[in-house]
């Protein structure tokens, strides 16, 4: 008995993009972080975002009361109580300069 199954031709196979090597910045825009101006933090990141950087907003990072919380996901570097005026420093020193801003690190995860 002959099988009906046919292997797909090369042209039928869709390729998926390889995992991106771009830096991912996660901004919490949940209720607790919004109380401390996370919306402006998000806007400032959006306006100053370097190439190859992805901005992701989430409803909570599980650290309520310490916000606005910002996580540089690819490196697992956490920032807490981020002020909108500090966004430029994070971008310049950490995202572009590859050196986390020690004074702004979330002490719970970076003692
Ligand atoms: S609302 Fe931002 S950490 Fe929970």
What would you say this structure looks like, in words?
With 111 residues, the protein is of the alpha+beta class. It has one domain: 3-Layer(aba) Sandwich (Glutaredoxin), CATH 3.40.30. The protein is 23% helix and 16% strand. It has three helices and four strands; from the N terminus they run βααβββα. The chain has a four-stranded mixed β-sheet with strand order 2-1-3-4, with helices on one face. Strand 3 and strand 4 form a beta hairpin. The chain is globular, with a radius of gyration of 20 Å. The N and C termini lie far apart (68 Å). The structure holds FE2/S2 (inorganic) cluster. FE2/S2 (inorganic) cluster binds next to helix 1.
Give helix and strand order, one letter per element, not per position.
Answer: EHHEEEH
Largest sheet: 4 strands, mixed
Which CATH architecture is right? 3-Layer(aba) Sandwich
Ligand types? FE2/S2 (inorganic) cluster
Tags for this entry?
single chain; 111 residues; 16% strand; globular; Glutaredoxin; alpha+beta; 4 strands; binds FE2/S2 (inorganic) cluster; four-stranded mixed β-sheet
Strand and helix map with partners:
Blueprint: E1 23-28, H1 31-35, H2 38-48, E2 53-58, E3 70-72, E4 77-79, H3 87-96
Parallel strand pairs: 1-2
Antiparallel strand pairs: 1-3, 3-4
Bound molecules: FE2/S2 (inorganic) cluster.
């Amino acid at each position: 008995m002959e099988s009906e199954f046919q292997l797909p031709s090369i042209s039928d196979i869709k390729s998926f993009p390889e995992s991106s090597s771009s830096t991912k910045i996660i901004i919490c825009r949940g209720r607790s972080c919004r109380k401390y101006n996370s919306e402006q933090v998000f806007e400032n990141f959006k306006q100053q975002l370097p190439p190859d950087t992805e901005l992701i907003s989430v409803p909570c990072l599980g650290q309520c009361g310490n916000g606005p919380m910002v996580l540089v996901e690819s490196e697992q570097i956490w920032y807490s109580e981020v002020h909108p005026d500090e966004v430029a420093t994070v971008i310049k020193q950490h995202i572009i300069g590859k050196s986390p801003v020690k004074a702004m690190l979330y002490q719970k995860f970076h003692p």
